[in-house]
Write a structure and sequence with these properties.
This protein has helices spanning 15-28, 32-45, 49-63, 67-87. The protein is mainly α. It folds into 2 domains: 1-46; 49-87, no CATH class. The two termini are 44 Å apart.
Length: 90
């Protein structure tokens, strides 16, 4: 586990959010501060949608496909997948 630094702060939460936080803390057997710290750490360190999609967007740009061609490609892929699902015996 990476090193952590204790950072005192005040959080302003709605009654609903505090209740959900307390509920999660009880389920995990941790105090509210530990759960809040975990949630903040996950939210801050998780890659953004733009970061996740950057490689894909570059590949699309490098491919030279138009928006219409890309749309047609994905619609074809979705249709093929749905066809495969229907063809599988249950």
């Amino acid at each position: 586990m990476p090193a952590t630094i204790e950072t005192p702060m005040t959080l302003r939460l709605s009654d609903r959010a505090r209740a959900k936080l307390a509920e999660q803390a009880a389920v995990r057997g941790q105090d509210i501060s530990a759960v809040a710290s975990d949630l903040i750490e996950q939210a801050i360190t998780r890659p953004t949608v733009d970061e996740v999609l950057a490689s894909f967007r570059k590949q699309v740009a490098d491919s030279g496909m138009s928006d219409e061609e890309l749309d047609a490609f994905f619609r074809g892929q979705i249709a093929a997948h749905r066809g495969e699902k229907k063809a599988k015996p249950k």
